[in-house]
Write a structure and sequence with these properties.
heterotrimer; A alpha/beta (378); B alpha/beta (469); C alpha/beta (360); A: 378 residues; alpha/beta; Rossmann fold; Helicase, Ruva Protein, domain 3; Zinc Finger, Delta Prime, domain 3; 3 domains; 5-stranded parallel beta sheet; two-stranded parallel ribbon; disordered N terminus; C: 360 residues; 7-stranded mixed beta sheet; 7 strands
C-alpha cells in the first residue's frame, strides 16, 4: 500500500476524494510500516554509500544531476530519493515532486502532457520560511524499466530541454531495459542487495517500537527468506504481527506462510523419492499429496534447486543434468494451472538420472533418436 | 463531364454533393479525384454515351445490396432524429468493411426520405496554411456551424443530416481535438451527424477505436450501426441487376459472360464496389478469354485495396481466384513436383500466405479443424499437430504482425510438407468450432465446480450439468 | 428442494471451522487488529477457500453479508460489445468470476472495481469499516492483461476497496499481485479430517455412518471435501443406509466425466490411427465444451495413460505432456495442444509396441 500515498499525491481518485478527515486520520494511524519506517534523511539510508555521499553534497548546495538508480527490489531506491527530496525542499515537497510509477498510465501521451507541463513550471529558489532551496523540481519515474521504448525515447528530448529547472530520477530493477540514450544522460548508481545484518537490525528496531514479540531465531529466518529485500522483510513482519495479534509471539509457521516458503520436509522428501527407483504410481501419489498442500510450484522448484546444489551425495555432472531439467520445468510451470504435469515430469527425469547408469542412459537416448529418424522416413 | 461521373461512382447521386459543398472545397476535391482516377482508366471513347456507374448505382432502397435488417435500423434512426425537435444534435456511427454500401445506403435513404445530406470533405488546397493542423480543424468546426445557418445554400428544406466520412488528418493525429470538436458541436449545432468509419483489418490506424472510444460513445449518446460484408446472395442479386441493366442497352458494351460474372462473384469477397469495378473492366475490355490468359503471364502482386483495379484483375483470372476455401484446398491437398530425388511443393507459397495474412488466426483454426481428414499416416499427423500447436503459440502475440505472419508460414508450410501420405478424396470443409462455457460459474442454486456436476445431477434428479455418455 | 449437505452444513463463522484451526484464529486477529490488507486465498479445489472467505467477510461486516442477491451487470468493451456478467453481492461485498467473460475480463475487472470504489457507502450504521470488498474467484484464469490492470486498480482504489482473490494455483498469478496481497494458503484437509467431518455431518442428519465407508470416501476424493460430502449424500440416496454393510462393498461413484476420460485413454491405447484420432478429438471437444477445464482434462488423461503404458516410454510421454501443457497455458485454443499431445502419445506408443514385436 505504499502506493496509496503516491496516488493521493497525484490527485488521482483513491484517497484524495475520501470524504472525512476522520477516516483519513484513522488510516494514518494504521500506516504501513514500510511507509512509517522509511528513512527520514539520506544519512539514514543504509549501505548505499556512493549515492548517499553524492546526495549529501547536493543537499549542502551542489548541483543535482539526473540520476538512475538500479538494483533489486527493496534495496532503498525509492526511500533514498524521497528522503533526499524531503531534505531539499522541506514543506514545498509536494509541489516540487512528480512521482509516477508503472501503475499509472505511462505511454508517450503521459510523457508529453504530464511530464512536460510539470517540467515547464517555474519555481523560485526560496522556501516559504525564507530558507534557500534549489530552484528545481524532481520527477521520479518508478519502475522505469516497465516503460515502453517509445515512451523512453520521448523522454529523452524532454530531459534535455528542461535541464534548467527539472531533474529526473529513474528507478528500475534492470538497467538493461532502459535505452542507451537515457542511461547516458543520467548518473547511474547501483543499489546492492542489503546485508542481512542491516535488515535484522532494522527489524529489531521496528519490533521494539511496535511491541512485536518475536524470537531471535525466527527473525533470523525471516531475514534470510526475504533475500536482502528490506520492503519484503518489513511487510512480512507486519503481516505476521497482524496475524498473530497483540501479546503473542510470532511463530515460524507464520513466517513460512507469509513468505510462502515450502517446509523443508516436503522438498527433502521429493528429492529422496527421486533417488530410488520407484513405481510411477508412487510418484503420482506423492505429487498429488504435494499438490493438496497447495505450495506454490515456483517455490518448490526454487528450494529444490538450493537443496540440489548443496547436496554432497550427487556428483557435479549429474547436478548439471538435473539442473537443466529443473530450469525447463520451472519455466514451463510459471503460467500453469496444473503444475502436476511439470512436477511429475521433473520427478521422473530426476529419478532416471539418479538411478540409471549414465552409459545405459546415453545408449537409450541414441536408440530413441534413431527410432525417431526411422519413423520420420517411413 | 467525366469528373462528375467519377463523383457519382464515389458518392452516389452527384447533384446533392456538388450543391452542398462550399465552392472552394468542391473545386479542390474534383481536381484531386479526377487527377488520380482519370489516368487509371484512359477514357474508352465509345462508351461515353453510357454513364456506366450512374446507371448501375442504386436508385432506391430496394436496389441497395445491404442486409434488410441493417437498412431498417438505419432508416429508423434517420426517421426518429429528423422528427425529433431537440435542439441538440444526434450522432450515429456507421462502421463496416470497405465496399459494403455504407455511403450508398445513407445517401439513398436520405433521398428517399427527402432529407438533405451535407458531406464534409477535407480541404486539400493549394493554400498551404489550411493544411497545417489547426487550420483544418477550424474549417472542420466551421462546417458544423455553417451548416447551422446555411439555409441559403440549401433548398429551404429544414431536414438535413451531416455526413462525416473524411476525418481531417489533424484529428487523426490528435484524437483529443476531435473530442473537443464533438463537445463543441453537441452544444452548438442542431443537425444530426452521421460518422462513417471503415473497418480496417490491418493494424494501421483504426479510426473507430481511435476516435470513438467508449467514454465518448457514452458521453454523447452516439448510436452505432455496424455493417457486415456484402453477403454472397446479395452480391449475386446485385450482379444480376447490373447485368440486366447492361443487357438493356446492348449497343455500347461487350457483355460479360456468365463465367466472368461467377469469377467476379467468387473473388470480390463481399466488396460490392470492387465487384462493380471488375464488371466495368470486363465490359470495356470485352474479350474475356484473351484478357484472362494475358493476365496469367503478368504478375499482379499488389495487395487488394491499395490498388483496386490490379487487385481485381488478379482475382478475375479464374485460376488465381483464391477464396478462403480454395486456399484451404490448396494447403490441405498439396501438389508436389519431383526434381530428381528431391521434391518441391508445386505452388506459390508466398501468394497463399499473402492471401490469408489478414486473418492468420482464423486460417490456422480452419487448418486445424480440417487437416486430419487429409492425412493418411499417423506420423505425418503427429508432426502437423505439433507444428499447428507451435504456430498457435506464436499467434498469441497478436500485437506483433510480423510474428503472426511467421506463425501462418509455419502452419501452412507444415501442413503441406508433412502430408506425405495424402488422402485424396472430397471432404467437406468445416468451420472451426467454438468452445463456449455452457455453465457459467455463478448461477442460481448451489455453486459447484463443473467437475462435481455429476453428483448434483444425481442428488437433484435434474440435468443441469451436462451428462457424458 | 432441500439444500445440499455441502451448503447446509457449511461453517458460517471462523470459530466454527473444522480444520486449520490455528489459521482461523490468525485470520480473526487479522480482522480485528489491523487495517485489512488485500488477500490472496489459494488452495486446491474443495479445500474450503470459499468457506473461509465468507467467514472472513462475516467477521468483517457482521451478518449483513449473508443477505446475498444475484445481479447481472453489463459492461461495454472498447470494441463496443456489451458483456454481461453475473455477480453475487451483499451490501458490503460483490463477487464475480471474471473468467466467465473470457478475453473481456480486463474491462470487467477495471470497470467493476472503479465503480465500487467510487461509490461511497452512505448510512452504514453500526459498521466501522470504510471499505467494500471485491471478491474475485478463479484469478488464476485471468489473462495477463487483466492482471496488470488489476494491479493498477488495486493500488489506485485501495482507500475504499479491498480485494480478496481466490485461486487454485499461484503460478499464473503475476508476482506484482502476489507481493501486494497477504497470501492465505488453504491446504486440503487430510483423510482423517475429511472422515471426521463426514461423521459429524451424518450425525447432524441423524444418520449413522460406518467408519470404513467414511474412510473409503475420504481416500477416494483426493482431499476434495466438497466432493466427499456430495458422494456421501449420493451414497445415502442410492443405498439408503450408511450404517450397515449389505453384501459386497459398493464402489464409490466416480464422476461421469472422469469415466469418460478413462474411456478416452483406452480408446487411445486400443488403436493408433487417424480415424481413432478423429474420434478422440470429438471426445475432447465434448469434455471442453461441457466446462471441464483443459488442464484437468490433460492431467486426468495423462494419469490414465501412464497407468497403461510401459515404463520405458514414461519419461518421454511426460516430456511431451509438459511441453503441450506449457503451450496450452500460452493460448486459449486448448484443443489443438491436447490433440497434439494425443497424437504424440499414439506415435510413441505405437513405436514401442513395434519395438516389442521386433524383440520377439
Amino acid at each position: 500500500m505504499h502506493s496509496f500515498l503516491k496516488s493521493g499525491k497525484l490527485g488521482e481518485a483513491g484517497s484524495s476524494n475520501s470524504p472525512t478527515s476522520g477516516s483519513a486520520k484513522k488510516r494514518l494511524k494504521k500506516l504501513q510500516w514500510v511507509e512509517k519506517y522509511r528513512p527520514k534523511t539520506v544519512e539514514d539510508v543504509v549501505e548505499q554509500k556512493d549515492v548517499v555521499a553524492v546526495l549529501k553534497e547536493c543537499i549542502s548546495g551542489a548541483d543535482l544531476p539526473n540520476m538512475l538508480f538500479y538494483g533489486p527490489p527493496g534495496t532503498g531506491k525509492t526511500s533514498t530519493i524521497l528522503a533526499a527530496a524531503h531534505q531539499l525542499f522541506g514543506d514545498l515537497y509536494k509541489d516540487r515532486i512528480l512521482e509516477l510509477n508503472a501503475s499509472d498510465e505511462r505511454g508517450i501521451q503521459v510523457i508529453r502532457d504530464k511530464i512536460k507541463t510539470f517540467s515547464q513550471l517555474t519555481v523560485c529558489s526560496a522556501r516559504a520560511d525564507g530558507n534557500p532551496c534549489p530552484a528545481l523540481k524532481i520527477i521520479i519515474l518508478d519502475e522505469a524499466d516497465a516503460m515502453t521504448q517509445a515512451a523512453q525515447a520521448a523522454l529523452r528530448r524532454t530531459m534535455e530541454k528542461e535541464t534548467k529547472t527539472t531533474r529526473f530520477c529513474l528507478l528500475c530493477n534492470y538497467v538493461s531495459r532502459i535505452i542507451e540514450p537515457l542511461t547516458s544522460r543520467c548518473t547511474k548508481f547501483r543499489f546492492k542487495p542489503l546485508n542481512q545484518s542491516f535488515i535484522l537490525e532494522r527489524l529489531q528496531a521496528i519490533c521494539k517500537q511496535e511491541k512485536v514479540l518475536v524470537a531471535e531465531n525466527i527473525l533470523n529466518v525471516l531475514v534470510q527468506e526475504s533475500g536482502g529485500d528490506m520492503r519484503r522483510a518489513i511487510t512480512a513482519l507486519q503481516s505476521c504481527a497482524n496475524l498473530q495479534g497483540k501479546n503473542s509471539h510470532i511463530t515460524l509457521e507464520n513466517v513460512y506462510e507469509v513468505l510462502t516458503v515450502v517446509p523443508e520436509k516436503w522438498v527433502a522428501n521429493f528429492l529422496d523419492l527421486c533417488r530410488k527407483r520407484t513405481d510411477i504410481k508412487q510418484i503420482i501419489q506423492f505429487i498429488n499429496e504435494l499438490e493438496q498442500q497447495a505450495y506454490p510450484t515456483h517455490k518448490i522448484f526454487e528450494q529444490l534447486n538450493v537443496l540440489l546444489i548443496e547436496s554432497d551425495t550427487i556428483s557435479e555432472p549429474l547436478k548439471a543434468e538435473i539442473g537443466e531439467y529443473l530450469a525447463e520445468s520451472s519455466f514451463r510451470s510459471t503460467c500453469s494451472r496444473a503444475d502436476f504435469t511439470h512436477l511429475l515430469d521433473f520427478a521422473v527425469h530426476t529419478q532416471e538420472i539418479l538411478t540409471v547408469d549414465p552409459e545405459a542412459r546415453k545408449w537409450e537416448q541414441q536408440e530413441n533418436a534413431k527410432c525417431t529418424i526411422i519413423q520420420g522416413l517411413v | 463531364m467525366s469528373a462528375k461521373k467519377w463523383k457519382v461512382f464515389d458518392f452516389g447521386p452527384a447533384a446533392y454533393i456538388t450543391e452542398e459543398v462550399p465552392i472552394s472545397k468542391r473545386k479542390t476535391k474534383d481536381e484531386n479525384v479526377t487527377s488520380v482516377k482519370r489516368y487509371k482508366f484512359s477514357s474508352p471513347g465509345k462508351h461515353k454515351s453510357f454513364d456506366f456507374f450512374k446507371k448501375l448505382a442504386p436508385h432506391s432502397p430496394e436496389d441497395l445490396m445491404v442486409h434488410p435488417k441493417k437498412l431498417q435500423e438505419l432508416e429508423g434512426w434517420i426517421k426518429t432524429v429528423v422528427q425529433s425537435n431537440k435542439m441538440k444534435p444526434e450522432f450515429l456511427l456507421i462502421s463496416g468493411p470497405t465496399g459494403c454500401g455504407k455511403t450508398s445506403a445513407v445517401q439513398i435513404l436520405c433521398k428517399a426520405l427527402n432529407i438533405e445530406l451535407a458531406e464534409w470533405t477535407n480541404p486539400i488546397d493549394m493554400d498551404y496554411d489550411v493544411m497545417k493542423g489547426s487550420g483544418q480543424v477550424a474549417k472542420f468546426m466551421d462546417f458544423f456551424s455553417e451548416s447551422k445557418y446555411c439555409s441559403l445554400f440549401g433548398k429551404g428544406n429544414s431536414k438535413k443530416i451531416l455526413l462525416i466520412k473524411d476525418f481531417p488528418n489533424a484529428i487523426i493525429r490528435c484524437p483529443e481535438e476531435f473530442f473537443s470538436v464533438l463537445e463543441h458541436i453537441s452544444t452548438n449545432s442542431v443537425h444530426p451527424v452521421i460518422f462513417m468509419c471503415t473497418d480496417s483489418t490491418t493494424n494501421e490506424i483504426n479510426l473507430q477505436r481511435l476516435l470513438f472510444p467508449d467514454e465518448i460513445m457514452m458521453k454523447h449518446c452516439i448510436a452505432h450501426i455496424s455493417f457486415n460484408l456484402c453477403a454472397a446472395t446479395l452480391l449475386k442479386k446485385g450482379m444480376k441487376r447490373a447485368s440486366d441493366i447492361l443487357n438493356a442497352c446492348p449497343e455500347s458494351f461487350h457483355h460479360p459472360t456468365q463465367t466472368t460474372i461467377d469469377a467476379i462473384l467468387a473473388s470480390s469477397m463481399g466488396d460490392i464496389r470492387c465487384a462493380m469495378n471488375q464488371l466495368y473492366l470486363a465490359c470495356i475490355i470485352g474479350d474475356q478469354n484473351k484478357f484472362v490468359t494475358k493476365l496469367k503471364e503478368g504478375k499482379a502482386g499488389s495487395k487488394r485495396g491499395k490498388n483496386v483495379s490490379t487487385g481485381s484483375i488478379k482475382h478475375m483470372a479464374r485460376d488465381e481466384a483464391l477464396g478462403l476455401f480454395h486456399g484451404l484446398g490448396r494447403v490441405l491437398n498439396p501438389k508436389r513436383k519431383n526434381e530428381g530425388i528431391a521434391w518441391k511443393l508445386d505452388c506459390d507459397l508466398q501468394k497463399l500466405v499473402d492471401e490469408f495474412s489478414i486473418q492468420p488466426a482464423k486460417f490456422t483454426s480452419f487448418l486445424f479443424e480440417n487437416y486430419l481428414k487429409y492425412f493418411g499416416a499417423l506420423g505425418d499427423a503427429q508432426k502437423t499437430a505439433d507444428i499447428l500447436s507451435f504456430s498457435l503459440g506464436l499467434l498469441e502475440n497478436w500485437e506483433n504482425h510480423e510474428l503472426l505472419l511467421m506463425a501462418l508460414w509455419t502452419a501452412v508450410s507444415g501442413v503441406m510438407i508433412f502430408n506425405e501420405h495424402k488422402v485424396s478424396k472430397w471432404n467437406q470443409i468445416k468451420a472451426p468450432r467454438k468452445i463456449e462455457r455452457r455453465i457459467k460459474s455463478i448461477e442460481e442454486g448451489p455453486r459447484l465446480h463443473p467437475t462435481d456436476g455429476f453428483y448434483y445431477n444425481i442428488l437433484t434428479k435434474s440435468s443441469k450439468y451436462p451428462v457424458f455418455k | 428442494m432441500s439444500m445440499l449437505w455441502v451448503d447446509k452444513y457449511r461453517p458460517k463463522e471462523l470459530s466454527a471451522l473444522d480444520y486449520h484451526i490455528q489459521q482461523a484464529e490468525e485470520l480473526k486477529n487479522l480482522v480485528e487488529h489491523s487495517d485489512f490488507p488485500h488477500l490472496l486465498v489459494y488452495g486446491p479445489s474443495g479445500a474450503g477457500k470459499k468457506t473461509r472467505i465468507m467467514c472472513i467477510l462475516k467477521e468483517l461486516f457482521g451478518p449483513g453479508v449473508e443477505r446475498l442477491k444475484m445481479e447481472p451487470i453489463t459492461v461495454t468493451t472498447p470494441s463496443n460489445k456489451k458483456v454481461e456478467i453475473m455477480t453475487v453481492n451483499s451490501n458490503y461485498h460483490i463477487e464475480i468470476n471474471p473468467s466467465d467473460v473470457g478475453i473481456y475480463d480486463r474491462v470487467v475487472v477495471m470497470d467493476l472495481i472503479k465503480n465500487i470504489a467510487q461509490t461511497q457507502q452512505i448510512g452504514m450504521t453500526g459498521n466501522q469499516r470504510d471499505f467494500k470488498v471485491v471478491l474475485l474467484t478463479e484469478v488464476d484464469n485471468l489473462t495477463k492483461d487483466a492482471q496488470h490492470a488489476l494491479r493498477r486498480t488495486m493500488e489506485k482504489y485501495s482507500a475504499n476497496c479491498r480485494l480478496i482473490l481466490c485461486a487454485t494455483s499461484l503460478s499464473p498469478v503475476i508476482p506484482a499481485i502476489q507481493s501486494r496481497c497477504l497470501p492465505i494458503r488453504v491446504a486440503a484437509p487430510s483423510v482423517s479430517e475429511i472422515a471426521t467431518i463426514l461423521q459429524s455431518t451424518c450425525e447432524k442428519e441423524d444418520l449413522e455412518l460406518r467408519p470404513e465407508l467414511a474412510e473409503q470416501i475420504a481416500t477416494a476424493v483426493n482431499g476434495n471435501l466438497r466432493r466427499a460430502l456430495l458422494i456421501c449424500e449420493v451414497y445415502k440416496m442410492e443405498h439408503g443406509d450408511l450404517s450397515e454393510q449389505v453384501g459386497e462393498p459398493l464402489p464409490i461413484p466416480e464422476p461421469d466425466w472422469k469415466v469418460f476420460v478413462v474411456q478416452t485413454a483406452s480408446l487411445i491405447t486400443s488403436e493408433q490411427s487417424i480415424e481413432n484420432l478423429m474420434a478422440v478429438r470429438e471426445r475432447l471437444y465434448e469434455l471442453l465444451s461441457n466446462g471441464i477445464p483443459p488442464e484437468i482434462v490433460l492431467k486426468e488423461l495423462l494419469t490414465a495413460l501412464l497407468m497403461k503404458c510401459d515404463k520405458h516410454i514414461i519419461p518421454q510421454v511426460l516430456r511431451e505432456a509438459a511441453l503441450y501443457e506449457y503451450r496450452m497455458t500460452q493460448g486459449n485454443k486448448h484443443i489443438v495442444h491436447l490433440e497434439a499431445f494425443v497424437t504424440k502419445f499414439m506415435c510413441l506408443y505405437q513405436r514401442h509396441l513395434k519395438s516389442l514385436m521386433q524383440g520377439f
